[in-house]
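Handoff note, outgoing to incoming analyst
You'll be picking up this chain. Sequence as last confirmed:
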Amino acid sequence: MPTFNSQTLLQQLQGDVSSLLNVLHTRIMPQPHAALLSQPAPGGWSVIQCLDHLNSYGLYYLPQLEAALGKGEQLGLPAKPAFKSGWFGNYFTNMMQPRPDGALKSKMNAPKGHRPVPQPAAAQVLDEFAAQQQRLLQLLQRAGQTDIGRLRVPTSLTRLIKLSAGDTFRFLIAHEQRHMLQALRALLAATGNNHTAVSMQHLADV
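Most recent structure output, in case you need it:
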């Protein structure tokens, strides 16, 4: 399993989240809600549905991460210079992480509890997503002060599988990147543009 410099990894993840917020504020929020609620094809998710799906994961994982970091702070667990990914954590992250060209390594159906409704409240979803990303940035900053390899977080699939806090951050942010690219494709389709030419570069150069 890969080993990372802990601080470098956390800084990279903070940069990834900041890029997602930049996409939200510069590409998505200026658009009319009608475009954001437009589905690219029957059964396809709109921009707002993609973000609503991500919000449902944030509602579970952000409190879990906060509790784990709080435990590390309470126990006085010092940060370690190196973080080694676990088997499950690395597998889930790689499964979610889009390729550089935006292609997905695997397709999957969203669990029942994380499927968005057909017409979510656009303003509420946008505000919630922005707030969750700010909270995620704060948690990443706190994570630099404790042992992200030792602290454990139960997955939303089953509490029997627990990931390290470091892998939970990696998985959660890779999942966000995956669906933000999906949201950008839906937006391009809604505005009459080529919705297939979306790569990871679109999450960096906005």
